[in-house]
Write a structure and sequence with these properties.
Number of helices: 3
Number of domains: 1
Distance between the termini: 54 Å
Order of helices and strands: HHH
Number of strands: 0
Shape: elongated
Helix content: over 70%
Strand content: under 5%
């Protein structure tokens, strides 16, 4: 399969847009319920959407970049903290 920057940029744009939209939906759910787990998911999806959106402007975006991994790990850490916080609240 050949490298096509136009197709790769298009697909990165789709993933970035859907991530931001998912973050906005979770933000709306958080606004209605004030549940911290929805806020954690909203932040994680918005961070991932912005991360992928910025990668569109790189000449050769790579999933193997340490910065991509660090941002993704930070987003997953936010979700993990939200889950632990939710479980801690429901046990008390």
């Amino acid at each position: 399969m050949s490298y096509t920057p136009l197709v790769e940029g298009f697909l990165l744009g789709i993933v970035a847009t859907t991530s931001v939209i998912a973050g906005i939906f979770f933000l709306r759910f958080w606004k209605d319920t004030r549940d911290s787990l929805f806020l954690a998911f909203a932040l994680a999806f918005l961070i991932e959407g912005v991360n992928r959106g910025f990668r569109i402007f790189f000449a050769h975006p790579s999933e193997a970049s340490p910065w991509v991994f660090m941002v993704r790990a930070f987003a997953f850490l936010i979700i993990l903290i939200g889950i632990v916080n939710k479980n801690r609240q429901s046990s008390t």
